Amino acid sequence: MIQLILFLGVGALLLISLFVLARRGAQAEGGAEALLEARRALSSLQGELLPTELVSRIFALDDLDYVTSSTSEDVRALFLAERQRIARSWVKQLRRQIVSLRNFHLGSARLYARLNFSTELTLAMEFAILLFACGALDLALRIRGPYGAQRIVDTTTAAAARVCEISEKSLGFLRPGNASPFGNPPTARNSAAL
Amino acid sequence: MLTLTIWRAAILLEAAIFYRGFRGNLLSKYPFFYTYIIGVLVSDTTFYVVYMLNHAAYVKWYWVSTTLVVILGYGIILEVFKHVLSAYPGVEKLARVTGLALFAAIFCFAISYSLWAPEAARVGTTGPDVRKDLWIFQATFQRDFWTVQAIFLFAIIGVVSYYRIPLGKNLKGMIVGYGLCLGVTLVTLALRSYIGLSFDAAWVFLQPFSFDVSLSIWAATLWAFHPNPAPNPAIRLEADYEIFAAKTRGTIGAMRTYLGKAARS
Lengths: 194, 265
Prior knowledge:
Chain A is mostly helical.
């Protein structure tokens, strides 16, 4: 019976992976265009979607105070629901940014001859944990609401700025004049290794 | 009648793939794959004639031919390694390590399970007259060979999907076609050896039909030469991998710290 499950499992896993491979679109093909696309997506997030001022405005308590003092309970509930939707949308954007970073890493790492199995496994797990954290944050926003705690607003705002900054650095090598990722100058040893 | 139709269709498709390969000069580009195609074409054509003229001889020699074809199937795995991963030596090594690790894990499990519960391990795969039953031995032997191929193909697909390695139409078709054939064969062989002869009605149809589907995929994707996209040399990074990986890890750590703070607040 165990052997049956084993062989069925191997066959089923292979068929599922084939399905995933067959469904892979042209966008997932990778290459320089994919990395440039990631860079463009991050620029768009930084410039249009996640500036600190905008995020502060979305989570501002002033708006809640004004709505609470000037309108009915129904309007307040509607306002809170809307703000919750916006906050969760922000987490969604953050998640996209992390996925962009992961795509960037994978797109670059595949070109290295000295790819390390354990390092890659660790990184894969760390990316997974980070994406899980985004999910947990989304859940917290859903349960506690956008104004559940004032500190969450401040920290998420800071996190947004910080994440953008980090991603900016990670994709910095795509700028003209930068030859290496994260600003690391190439060395003779490294060049020889490749 | 249906089985014979499927068989004839397979011969036609194999001939078409070979003809297109010859005309499009694909034979020299994918020698292992076309060795496999020539092998199955010769085997299917010969045994079709033998089946029509002498059924007893067909039953006697069919499994020898099938075993040779199974071994030739390794050529497709080699072809994929050669064309898809040769431009990415790091990923190629990763695929090899993953494939070997998976194979070692399954092999060790199967050995320990057989030692731990020899009677239980035999249930569903062999009968009490296993030593006398050549057919069961051959079926098990082929299934094991196919399993090893499936594990390696799974490892290749895993790293190709994870690292988003670009695939040309030819290679993608080769992988999908052979993977489909392997997957369906493994599942049906496992079910057949467990359920027994009552599964034969489905097995004699499913297995050759899945092979026809694979041949159709190959005929469509290998109609003309589509080279595998080469990595863009302009994007090749000069920094050391360890530094690069450490920086990514540092970035992840920083992101996690900020997210953690946000979640705790």
